[in-house]
Design a protein that fits this description.
Strands 4-5-1-2-3-6 form a 6-stranded antiparallel sheet, with no helix packed on it. The protein starts with 12 loop residues before the first strand and ends with a strand. Helix content is 9%, strand content 30%. It is elongated, with a radius of gyration of 15 Å. The chain has one domain: 10 Kd Chaperonin, Protein Cpn10, Chain O. The chain contains 1 helix and 6 strands, in the order E-H-E-E-E-E-E. By secondary structure, the chain is mainly beta.
Length: 106
């Protein structure tokens, strides 16, 4: 997965592209802005886009828990919301905020 965000994590930080949040219900009803914002905060899965130069260096044997392109689960309140140069929403978080690597089916 190529990092098109224009955001390069430093140190132990990572960059995650969280799953998209639907703005319309399955029945076609447009959701209220507050509902959309709450759904964005609740989104806890996405793709690992970039890893800082010392990600995971201080844990265990220093081997990464996930690699770029992996689908991951992360903490609900992890990191900082950022908007990339590509207009997408990203999460800039600590490397330890990754809770699991997910199979494609999750």
């Amino acid at each position: 997965m190529k990092n098109k965000s224009g955001i390069t994590p430093c140190g132990h930080y990572i960059l995650i592209l969280p799953d998209k949040v639907e703005t319309k219900s399955a029945g076609g009803i447009i959701m209220a802005p507050e509902t959309i914002e709450n759904a964005k905060r609740d989104a806890t899965q996405g793709f690992l886009v970039a890893v800082g130069p010392i990600g995971w260096a201080e844990f265990n044997d220093g081997k990464p828990w996930a690699k770029i392109g992996d689908r991951v689960a992360f903490g609900r309140h992890a990191g900082k919301d950022m908007t990339g140069e590509d207009g997408e929403r990203y999460i800039l978080a600590n490397c330890e905020d990754i809770l699991a690597v997910l199979d494609d089916g999750n």
